[in-house]
Amino acid sequence: MNLMKEDIDETKPEDIAYVYSGYAPLSVRLAHAALQGGQAWKSAEEATKSLPGPSFDERLTSSTGPGAGSRKTSIVFILGGATFTEIAALRWIAKKEGITLPPLIAVRDER
Predict the structure, then answer these.
(1) Residue 60 and residue 45: Cα distance in Å, rounded?
(2) HEC states along the chain?
(3) How far apart are CA 37 and CA 54, in angstroms?
(4) Is CB count within 10 Å lower at the N or C end of the chain?
(5) In this predicted model, what pLDDT tens digit does every residue of 11-51 receive, in sequence order?
């Protein structure tokens, strides 16, 4: 996972690293890889094996009801808190990937 990017154009961003002026948080890179699927997720899955604790990947689809499959959204759960910048990056990814509904971001912070 490439967390640092040197050549960032903040006027026309092409990568999520622009939100941190060249750094992309691991949480956001993993969410982006999950949205892209395929090879991007396979490399991210390898990276998650070095993290402690279990992980899972669940994809839900709806094939019934009005408008089934016409609108996409994403749900991201982050345990341990998230910064406003990470949330902004997740919203940017959703827009860039053509997700029509804003992402649902759930954060659990231990206090």
Answers:
(1) 18
(2) CCCECCCCCCCCCCCHHHHHCCECCHHHHHHHHHHHCHHHHHHHHHHHCCCCCCCCCCCCCCCCCCCCCCCCCCEEEEECCCCHHHHHHHHHHHHHCCCCCCCEEEEECCC
(3) 20
(4) C
(5) 888 888 888 888 888 888 888 888 887 777 777 777 777 77
Query: Is residue 103's pLDDT more than 70?
Result: yes
The 10s digit of each residue's pLDDT in 66-86 is 555 566 777 888 888 888 888
Please, which residues have CB within 8 angstroms of residue 27's CB and are 6 or more apart in sequence? 78, 82, 86
